[in-house]
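Sanity check. The docking grid for pyridoxal-5'-phosphate depends on where the pocket ends up, so I'm generating a full predicted complex first rather than guessing from homology. Inputs follow.
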Amino acid sequence: MKGRPLTASAQHAPTPFQVSGNELLVGDVPISRLAARVGRTPFYAYDRGLLSQRVSELRAALPAEVRLHYAMKANPMPAVVQHMVRLVDGIDVASGGELKIALDAGADPMEISFAGPGKSADELVQAVAAGILINVESPRELPILSDASARLGVPARVAVRVNPDFEIKGSRMRMGGGSKQFGVDVEQVASVLEEIGARRLEFEGFHLFAGSQNLDARSICEAQRRAVELAIRLAESAPNTVKSLNLGGGFGIPYFPGEQPLDLQAAGEGMQAVVAEARRAFPEAKLIIELGRYLVGEAGVYVCRIVDRKVSRGRVFLVTDGGLHHQLAASGNFGQVIRRNYPVAIGTRMGAPDLETVSVVGPLCTPLDLLAEQMPLPAAGPGDLVVVFQSGAYGYSASPRDFLSHPHPPEVLV
Ligand SMILES: *Cc1c(COP(=O)(O)O)cnc(C)c1O
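Predicted complex below; grid placement will be based on this.
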C-alpha cells in the first residue's frame, strides 16, 4: 500500500511510520485491519521493513569496517531476533535464556557475546559449551570458565568487560564510570588479564560500554575515542593480541517532547577517526558496536483500543484496554524521573484535524496507569485504536504483564 509520511506532531520528533487515509500503516497493513488479523487488542506490532531500513541507514552512515551487533534484550521476540540475525554481524545476549533464543534463531556462535553481572555458573557453562564469547565482569567467573573448558574439552573464549574510569556525557542510563556493578574496574583489569593467561582461557579482547540512550553524536564519539585509548593502555597487560574490540553503543532514540533524533551522519563521521586509531593499534581486531533500542525501538508500536470516554469535571479521559502492565516505560514508571509523554496517536483517525486535550489511561486500578497525559489528539471514542510509538524496545519484555491478571498481549512481526 502506498502511504504518506506521518507528519510530526508539534511536540514529538517524527516517527518512520506512514499513513493511508485515516489509518496508520504497520508493514503496509492499515492498523484496524491488522487488529482484526491479530484477533484482539492490545498487541505489539513490529515492522520488519523498518527494522531492515534502520540497519541499512546505519551501514550507510558508519565506517564500513564497523561490525554491528544487536543487543537482543531490547526486544527478544524470537521472530524479531531471527530477522535481525540475517541483517547484523552478531548478537549480544544477557542471559542463558537469550542465548537459547539467539542460537535457535540461527546466530553464529562465533559472533554471539554474553555480558551481564551475576552470570550463574550454569549460564557460564552453557556459554562455554555453545562456543560464544563471554564478556568477563568479575574474577569469580574465571575458575568456573576454566573448569568448564577442561571438562568439555572446548576453549573458553573471553573478553574483559571494562568499567572505564570516565563517564559518558548525556546518557540517560550510565553503565560505566565510577562505582558500578558492570564490568571490571580499570584498576583491576591487569590482574584479571594475568589470571586469564594463567588459566589458559582464550583471550579475545575488550568490551567497553559507557551508557545507553544517548542522542548526542559528539559525546558518543568522544566516549568511543576514550574507549579505544583505554583499550590501548590495557592491551599492554593482555596475554595475546586483541581480536575483538567492542566499543559499546548507546545510540538513543527520541521519546519525549522536544528531543531531537541522533544525527547519524555526524556519528558516522565522528567514528572515522576512532576507527582509524583502533585499526592502527589493533590491526587484527574486529571493531564492534552493539545497539539495542536504536535498531528496534522505532520500528514497534503498542496498540490498544478505547473502551470508554469519560469526562471528569471538564477533563476528557480515553480509557483503553491497554496500559502500564504492557507498556511500563510509556506510563513513565521505567526509570524516568519526571513523567513525560511518549508519542501517541489515534491510529484510526490519522488525518483528523480536530484536536482536543485528553488523557489516555489504562484499565488498571492505579493512577500510575497513564499512556498520555493532557495530550492534544483528534476527537476519538470507543472502538478507536490508540497507538504508542517508540515501543519496539524495552516494551513487552520490560513490563509487569501479570499485574492485575489481564491476558498478555500478542506480539506480531509484520
Ligand atoms: C542493554 C545493553 C545494550 C543495549 O543498550 P541500548 O540502549 O538498547 O542500545 C548494549 N550493551 C550492553 C552490554 C547492554 O547491557
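Relevant for the grid: The radius of gyration is 23 Å.
Also worth noting: The mean pLDDT is 95.
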